[in-house]
Each structure stands twice: as C-alpha cells, then as structure tokens.
Amino acid sequence: MFKKIDIIVIIAIVALDKIPVETSDPEKWKSVIKINLIGAYNYIRLAIHHLINNGEGKIITIGRNMLKLTPDTQGAALDT
Fold it and tell me: Choosing a second label site near 43 at 20 to 30 A (CA), which of 32, 35, 74, 78?
C-alpha cells in the first residue's frame, strides 16, 4: 500500500478540431478550458497538502496546444 504522494503528473491534451477561430464555438472552447486548466488546478489543489506535509514532492503538468494557422491568419502560438 502506498504511504505518501511523491509526484503529481497531469496531462491536459483535450483540444478542439482544427478550425478557424472565427467559425469556432465559444462553448466548446469553454469546455476545453474547463477540462485542461480547471481540471488540472483541482487535482493539484487536492494533492498539494500531501506534498507540503511530506516536505517534498514534484508537480508536473503536460499540455498540448493544437492550433491551425491558415495563410491569411497571422498570430502566435504557445506550446505548453
């Protein structure tokens, strides 16, 4: 049986279809944000006191940003 939490690994890779922003559905974007960001926050919040009580531990978050840039679209993309 496990006695303590040493590491938290969160993988947030839910993404939308590769469609232009102007034709995207804002509600679908909200869903992605809720799953990837709020979900990660909630898991960390639940487990972080264990790491603090242990006096050590690691939190690793892995994300993926899927973005399609068309020739007539200019902008920047961030990979998390």
Answer: 78
